[in-house]
Specification:
This protein is an all-alpha fold. It has one domain. Helix content is about 60%, strand content about 0%. The chain is built from four helices and no strands. The termini are far apart. The relative contact order is 0.07.
């Protein structure tokens, strides 16, 4: 019985690690690694069924729509209950990055 329980624990642990493994085709030294990782971590990009990112191929409009939808869901989830000051800070930060706001 103990062996079965231990085997089950090991199986669940290994399976969990496999489910949450980052894309093997995105090298850590790639300039976009951090950005892709953040999007993966937040569930915006989940990759392909073969667990890859395929960063060298073009994205389809379907994939873009899916990513934008997930991004909007993520923002909506994080914004609900946020203070107005926090939202203004976020908007100003985006504006600074895009050059819309100057200080």
């Amino acid at each position: 019985m103990k062996k079965k329980i231990l085997s089950l624990i090991v199986l669940v642990t290994v399976s969990s690690a496999m489910v949450f493994a980052f894309f093997p085709d995105v090298p850590k030294h790639h300039w976009a690694y951090e950005y892709v990782y953040k999007l993966w971590e937040r569930g915006i990009f989940i990759g392909y069924p073969d667990k890859t990112f395929k960063g060298d191929r073009c994205i389809t409009r379907y994939e873009a729509a899916t990513a934008v939808s997930r991004l909007l869901d993520f923002i909506e989830e994080k914004v609900v209950g946020a203070k107005i000051e926090d939202l203004v800070t976020v908007v100003n930060g985006i504006a600074l990055r895009t050059g819309e706001l100057t200080r």
